[in-house]
Amino acid sequence: MREKPIISIVIPIYNEAENIPRFFRSLAQVLSGLEEKYEWEIIFIDDGSCDSSAEELRKLNDGRIQVLEFSRNFGKEAALSAGLNQARGEAALMIDADFQHPLELIPEFIAKWEAGAEVVIGIRKRNKKAGLIKNAGSFIFYRIIRRISTVDIIPNETDFRLVGREVIDAFNRLGESKRMTRALIDWLGFRRDYLYFEAPERTNGRAGYNFSSG
Ligand code: UDP
Ligand code: MG
Questions:
Q1: Pocket flag, ligand 1, residue 77 (CB < 6 Å)
Q2: The domain spanning residue 84 has which CATH number?
Q3: By residue range, what is the domain housing residue 13?
Q4: For ligand 1, is residue 8 a contact (CB within 6 Å)?
Q5: Which H or E run includes 119?
Q6: Which of 13, 14, 103, 213 has the most ligand 1 atoms within 8 A of CB, as the residue to mutate?
Q7: Domain tally for the chain?
Q8: End-to-end CA distance of the chain
Q9: Among 1, 113, 132, 152, which has the minimal tally of Cβ within 10 Å of its Cβ?
């Protein structure tokens, strides 16, 4: 019998100690529903957390898990890049650890990839609760980006996305060190598809103020 393809799950972690145990339980549960078809590797990138995230990750004790530990906080973009560089799967799915990216959508990302999309992008439905300032900030941010860049970035698209092997390889060949992962993936092209989701409030911790958040 042919070996099952591997899918890599890439999770950037910055001070998520309180979320890690439940996040991993939920992830393992979702993945178990797909294990007839796929093998998994789970790559956590501890982006210089100053809480007990590293300890919580060590406790998980699951043979599928790899943990990359940064020496300090380099930011989510660097964490995602390191994760994609480490990924050995036929596809890699990036997901936040604070439950703002609904885990139950993972099978739908995979279904769209199976149907031929090489990039499957999670689009956040408008979050009325995000507040006027954040929404205005995002609006301005995307207006500026659209004006200065040749890439058509869709407002509210997020890093909750799946990329196929060819996209991972192309991404890994790019040399930019200051990068916005999702913009670069968009710039690469490839066949895309989209999934819409509602982002709940972050679970535990505090999101940094960040116009480009996704
Ligand atoms: N994160 C990270 N490095 C950072 C900030 C955040 O790896 O410097 C991780 C964080 O743990 C989470 C994801 O990136 O899994 C998204 O971060 P956050 O929830 O703070 O951002 P937002 O939801 O506002 O986009
Ligand atoms: Mg968040």
A1: no
A2: 3.90.550.10
A3: 6-201
A4: no
A5: strand 119-124
A6: 14
A7: 1
A8: 40
A9: 1
